[in-house]
Amino acid sequence: MEFKIDRDVFLKSLAHVQGVVEKKNTLPILGNVLIEAHDGFIKLTATDLDIIISEKISAQVIKEGSTTTTAQVIYDIVRKLKTGSNLHISLNDNNRLKVISGKSDFNLTCISADEFPVLEDDIEEEFVEIPSYELLKLINKTKFSISNDETRHYLNGIYFDKKNDDNKLIAVATDGHRLSKSAIEIKNGKNFQPVILPKKTVFELLSIIDEDSITIKILATKSKVKFIYKDIVLISKVIDGKFPDYDKVIPQDERKPAKAKIEEFVAALDRLKSLSSDRKGIVKILVNKNEFKFTINDAISGDGFEELQANYDGEPIEIGFNSSYLIDVASVLESKDIVLLLKDAISPILIKDLNDPLSTYIVMPMRVI
Questions:
Q1: Of 2, 8, 168, 265, whose CB count within 10 A is highest?
Q2: pLDDT tens across 15-36, in order?
Q3: What is the C-alpha to C-alpha distance for residues 28 and 116, in angstroms, rounded to an integer?
Q4: Are 156 and 215 contacting, i.e. CB atoms less than 8 angstroms apart?
Q5: pLDDT of the residue at 94
Q6: Domains 2-115 and 127-249 share a fold
Q7: CATH superfamily to which 127-249 belongs
């Protein structure tokens, strides 16, 4: 195997695939990237046995062939080489991968490509096609609500759903204390299989997708999901479990809106959060006629008070919240205003985005002494 390739092109592809590689694994081959050289292109592949990602990139192939080498090592070396340089890469007779760039010369240990695990790419289901920026929107508007509680594994990802009688692809995440739901209009995928996408896969997608209008194909089965984007193919196992019925969680009752400027709302909460010694940032909020009053009282750090103008004409409500949860929601709203739909001091609040009617957020209140 021998080829020449632009350093920047090679580095970008290595960055895409090496994120899947587990830094600590019992099988050395899983720490490697598979490099295959064919006529006019090379293909890079990495896997942790749950996710497999591959990408084809253009190269001057002198001799076809394949091998594997440590993903982290080759990525670090290429990253530290000069931007805009050219690489000459070849597989020696002693099973070492030679990487030459200018006066830099490296010989990397390899494991035969025959030992690299092969995962079946047998997903031929009906696919959903959406622009990449739309998928990014769905992920970014829901990912912060993914649960870290391993005992409820079915909450450790984003649930992608498609109602049979609707033309929307829906994304939902919840950790039991908050819920984020967003949706986009789609034209196809009538029989799309709902899946729970694992957190690692979610963040891998964020690392490979650009905010452009290039179409992404999504194919899903009960056990796997496949994403096709440009020359990248990512296949992931999905979380086996039943996701909660999110429609039942979203309140449908009458509520009073309290509206404030997002910038002022977040700034006030962020300042008070600095006083929280346990990092939970639990803040008491008094919603009164045309005002929000925020207070925090921490036994170690001290106490604080913030007040800001709001539009509200209901009965006074005093309610406690994890300030980080409210800041997370506010950070993804497209509107310049945040609207809290309130019922009473013990009911969850509903937050809507004035500029995005397809997104909904729920935050549970917390008891504040």
A1: 265
A2: 999 999 987 777 899 999 999 9
A3: 10
A4: no
A5: 84
A6: yes
A7: DNA Polymerase III, subunit A, domain 2 (3.10.150.10)
Instruction: Find where tokens 């649930």 sit.
Output: 159
User: How, if at all, do strands 356-363 and 349-353 pair?
Assistant: antiparallel
Contact criterion met (CB below 8 Å) for 257 and 340: yes
Residues 6+ apart with CB under 8 A from 29: 68, 111, 115, 116, 117
- Could you tell me what percent of the chain has a pLDDT over 70? 98
Q: To the nearest whole number, what is the mean pLDDT of the chain?
A: 92
Paired tokens of 251: 């309140």
How do the domains of the chain map onto residue ranges? 2-115, 127-249, 256-363
Place of tokens 């870290």: 148
Name the CA radius of gyration of the chain, rounded. Answer: 25
334 vs 203: CA distance, rounded Å: 22
CATH number for the domain whose boundaries are 2-115: 3.10.150.10
Please name which of 322, 328, 266 lies closest in space to residue 141, comparing C-alpha atoms: 328
**Strand partners of residue 68:** 34, 111
Q: Which residues, 6+ apart, have CB-to-CB distance to 253 below 8 Å?
A: 343
Q: pTM above 0.90?
A: yes
CATH class of 256-363: alpha beta
